[in-house]
User: Fold these one by one.
Assistant:
Number 1:
Amino acid sequence: MAEYLLLIYEDEARTSALEPADDAALVDEFQRFMARNATRVREGRRLAPTSAAVSARRDVDGGVRISDGAFVESKEVVAGYFLVEAADLDEALAVAGQVPVPHGGVEVRPIRSVRPTPDA
Amino acid sequence: MDATVASVVADAHRRQWGFVLAATVRVTRDLDLAEECVQEAYAQALTQWAGGGVPDRPEAWLTTVARRRAVDVVRRRDTLRDKLPLLAEDDTAPPADQDIAGRDIPDDRLRLIFTCCHPSLDVDTRVGLTLRLVCGLSTAETARALLVSEPAMAARITRGKKKIKAARIPYREPPPEELPARVDAVLDVVHLVFSTGYTAPSGDRLQRRDLVERAEHLARVLHQLLPGRSGPAGLLALILLTDARRHTRTRPDGSLAPLSEQDRTRWDAAQIQEGLRLAGTALRHRPPTRYALMAAVAAVHARAPGWEATDWPRIVDLYDTMLRVWPSPVVALNRAIAVGQARGPAAGLAALDELVAERQLAGYQYLAAARADFLRRLGRAGEARTAYREALRVTENAVEREFLESRLEELGD
């Protein structure tokens, strides 16, 4: 078994403009997704919008620079995540394909194993 | 004797590499290690067959030797508790140390092809890995085939293998519901290998026979492994029907002979027969696949007694259908050229001019060349000259360049 992080990328402008009823429907859909994949999904959270984000970046002289906002500015940002366990990439992709994300997509990233492979 | 053995080994390398490697990956579940073991088996074959004669089934001999070597290495590593980075494998697969007799070897090869062409790899990496692992081309040969530098190709192959390991891209045939999409990706890779060989993108020779043969071989393997599917039958038919013209594509002096001027009596009749039969099989499926339709176009050309007597309206119909199944600017371009044959150069030019704004066709040599041809036939010499010069600017194959230059010369100043 391997672990994969499913990063949910979303167009924030569109999701934040959802009517409360539509947003509630989306939350329901996520709950159904989690129930359906209960054996695979270890955990998953929805993130606050990027307006609430703060970034910390190492300076060249070793200090830390704190700045307002998400790390990389782009229209589609990380909106949430699931940590799933799967036998291989195809199984992880099958789960990723069920994530209800109408205005964006899902990036699948293998979690690096604790003991690195010889040439990884 | 040694020369004979060397040529038998070389032949086994060309034909059986993917077969032997696929069976060995089962044991190692590690592509690099499997490659090493297969390489060693071929090296042993050179010396052992020279002394003891060539075995009846060279591929079985090579597979047994490579797998035995792999088992040794894996056991040694296991006792060192140094766990191998595993290629994810289907749990239903038989145990690795089972003897090869009685096992479904072709299925192994299919697994290897699907692993190399997994959609999570970019297309260039898929082609590189397929040529390297399934066809057994060296990194240098793969680099030459794909017109990239050897270090760039080596880096791409290494990255591809690392991703297979790190992301655990499975070593198996995809489940039925994913099969159509996955098969299409594999067919596209094989088709790309074929077209790169059929008309080399650059260089002083029109064709790269080695690549054409690899592509035909791969298409044949896929058709044998998936006989009921339309795509593989269509692609194999397309390759056979198109490549049947290989001897007539250049004149004795090496210059390009367009389809309209080729001597059809010299087309490979046996290959056309096989291609027509396969095209028929591919077209029986509904809806028709893209490759079945492309094979159907090639079949119309193969059946036509001559250029003028070709059933052009039928070809236009086929391209119309293809545009619905697989809309692409290149298909639209081919349709426009067929329209020019069916309804005259003015209609063809009008259809082409609709495509000039198409961004994907900007710099595509065949668009300028087709416009030039229609303009020439319409007697619009000045505009035709401009179009030929445009085509020359973007054509890098010497034989094709020479053809365009000769047409430009015929037009005078």
Note: Chain B has a mean pLDDT of 87.
Number 2:
Amino acid sequence: MSLVLFVPDDAAAVSVGADRVAAALAVAAEERGLDLRLVRNGSRGMLWLEPLVEWDGPDGRMAFGPVAPDEAGSLLDAISSGTGHPRALGPTEEIDYLKNQERLTFARVGVIDPLSVRDFEAHGGLEGLKTALTMTEEAICEAVLQSGLRGRGGAGFPAGIKWHTVREQAQAEKYICCNADEGDSGTFADRMLMEGDPFTLLEGMVIAGFATGARQGIVYIRSEYPHAISKMTRAIEALEEAGWLGGNIRGSGKDFRVSIRRGAGAYICGEESSMLNSIEGRRGTVRSKPPIPAIHGLFGKPTVVNNVLTLATVPVVLAKGAEFYKDFGMGRSRGTQAFQLAGNIRRGGLVEKAFGVTIRELIETFGGGTATGRPFRTAQLGGPLGAYVSEEMLDLPMDYEALAEHKAMLGHGGITVFDETVDMAEMARFAFEFCEEESCGKCTPCRIGAVRGRETVEKILRGENVARNIALIEDLCELMTDGSLCAMGGLTPMPVLSAILLFPEDFDRASALAAE
Amino acid sequence: MSVSEEIPGAREARAICATRSNDPSMLLEILHDLQVRVGHIPGESVPILADCLNLSKAEVYGVVSFYHDFRTEPGAPITVRICQAEACRSMGAEALTERLLSRYGVSLSEISAAGVTFEPVYCLGNCALAPAAMVDGALIGRADGAAVDAAIAEAGR
């Protein structure tokens, strides 16, 4: 009987040596005459434990981590002889971090071989698509609407409404565009999903096609994600071979094809209309709205633009029903969100939980506080365009509306933690600098505002006319918020203003200088 | 051989456009492929791409100059991209960048005597294992000087 071990080939796991561990295990197994079957799975999302090796034993999956390449031999010996190992963590699913999650979108990530259609199907894959094949276009859109699923890219627009709009357009040519340009710092869930369970995303796209009458899907993946691009490319081939993608899908008479487009290092292409321009081979500048992409999108045709996780959640909605999905969550935030614990955090990784979990639970209970062990100072929620929150705000629930009420933003569910050493005036300067670097340049508030904002924060950093310059920044932020074409210029004020509001002491450079 | 075939990247540009059916919407993919084959996007290839794809030179140049990935000069033999975004800053990315730059005796985007260049990048999607760096496509988590040095040595082999 062969020994089955799982070693992730997720980019994060590989970044800390998973490939070297896999190679060392193969060598050590050969030396011991063991018949080893090595499966390269996605990551379970407990990234501080990577490289996490799992043994599929008689009692289920057993975890070991983080494993170093020179521990491969001792690990195999411990497994063969049934003795303990210093890296042993017990049954994987019993680890608190994983056990206390509610994994719907990520149910298979880290569990299955990402490129095995058989494994995918054995773990509930394709059930949503099979259900969709029995439904009318309208019924599929309605199920998605009823589930309460909102766009996971950050804006939180109800997916079902978008799908209905595209479905209602009379044109023959329509598109499903998956936005996999996950450029926000502190977010990596799209990448993990594409690397760990790419078929789920493709299944969601086929369902979107069936629901709206589109026959062509495009996944726009940022070039910074070479692992995801390669995994998705192979997944498309495998699903086509299995007959679940391409022409006349499983004899249904329906076609749906998916192709991949690579981004080219422009953050702004995560904005949906920039992304559409980029897919058309143009500069990734923002389009004015209206018209909305659902009516006038890619090549001027009706287009569903959804984030990776929105599309990847659709299969479970159809497989288990809108009511099942809707039961998770709070208020108007239904279902689960893949929260990402990032930055200065002890147990960084992916936590899928129903909406309503508090920021504190995520950072403290799951994350274990800061990585450096120094006191917590702030966390930025929802990426570079999201607000910073203070210690006092940690008991707020992760819910679109509750956070918005406190001038914060849930966004894509990323949480970037900072310890007490962070300089918030410097982070405000960086927010403007990032906007300056990545603005598409189309609208003036963003293009010029970012530069003026950075210059003004730099004056504050030098202690020049601090009060007047803060007033100037607040005025500039109001203009950027009201006058920018898209979220890049429109939301850059969020991190800036939250830093000024919550951490005014960091901006008080004049008195700091005087004290010296 | 026509005169245009002697222009740097000309043959490659025409061949790559042909494999993409001379479809103008494939311009980004074509530029990626050309950069892999030639090492950069030679300025002389812009009119050729425009001709193949039925675009204006301005349209092609506009795309080349818009995206950070495309460079019009040959790059360094080894490129180290160091993430400068928030999650990596929270774990000391700025200090790491400073240390590496001073040790290799270069500023950002300058090529060292050993053929190494350091470029800023905003997010490599490895934010739970910050700071992150990428050396010629190999991602490094919990990056420190030693890990980056080792990856540079590996890439140089």
Note: Chain B has a mean pLDDT of 93.
